[in-house]
Structures are given as structure tokens and as C-alpha cells.
Specification:
Pnp Oxidase, Chain A, 9 strands, globular
Length: 170
Amino acid sequence: MNLSTLFKITYGMYIVSSKNGDKINAQLSNTVVQITPEPPTMLISVSKNNLTHEFIEKSGVFTISIISDICEMKDIGQFGFRTGRDYDKFEMCNYKLGKNGAPIILDKTLGYVECEVVNTMDCESHTVFIGKVTDTEILNPELEPMTYDYYFKTLKGKLSKNATHYQKPE
């Protein structure tokens, strides 16, 4: 089986955020899908190893910030490859708290979606969170979304071992 075929499925790049009390955290994600139009419902997949997973489980809320193609690795790198357990991912980031209390990234993003978890599915290494959309806003309508292909080919981005389609080297 050639699992590299899965890299041909198109994805966008997002920052998924949540909260736990007054603490906030976020991570890079390519696994964000709108699954119903009415009511608008989103699906995200998050590694059980990630602090963001813990925060979503505890708070029942998450936000999705849509990354634009003008972002550079320095803009989004702080949200991947390091844990929020020992690093403040928001220290050098312009953000606001959404209506649900989870952070929304403001710089070089197209917009955001706020969600309230309505269901989950255990997928062994990851949990699929299904969220009812509670708020949205377009922040920068002139920007274009970043694709996963752009992230890899242009920015030379890497996969975290917790990414949804990480493959162990042979």
C-alpha cells in the first residue's frame, strides 16, 4: 500500500485553538472540514498527545483560524512542533478571545470559526471533535487560504509526529 497517495488529497492550513479556564493553547492543523450546512457543523481531528486536545475536552469549545498564503514559517511555526505545556504559543502573536473564550489569531489570517463541541469520535491516536458553529468572521477578505501543498512545497513545512497522516520512516 502506498500511503503517500494520501498526500494528494487537498487540505488547507489552520490554527485550532481552545481554552482551559484562563489558559489558552493552539496547534497547527490540516484536518478541518465543514460537514453540514444547516446547522453549520465542523469536524476537526486532534492528537490525544496534544495539549489542545485536553483543552477542547475540558472546555467543549474550539476556534479555527484560517491561515493565509502570505504567512511565513515564522508566523505559524510557533503553533507546531512544540508543546504549549512548556512554551507560550501566544507570546509573539496578535490574537483576541472569541465569544466562546478560545483564542482567534488575527495576523495574516482570512477569518475564523468558533465552535461548541456537540459530539466526539475516538479514533485511537486522535479524537474527532464535531462542533456546532457559534460564530464566524471574515477578517481579511483580500487574502487567499494557505493549502497544505503550499505549506510543504513553498514553506518547506514538516509533519509533526502527532499530525493526522504522519508516517513513520521506513
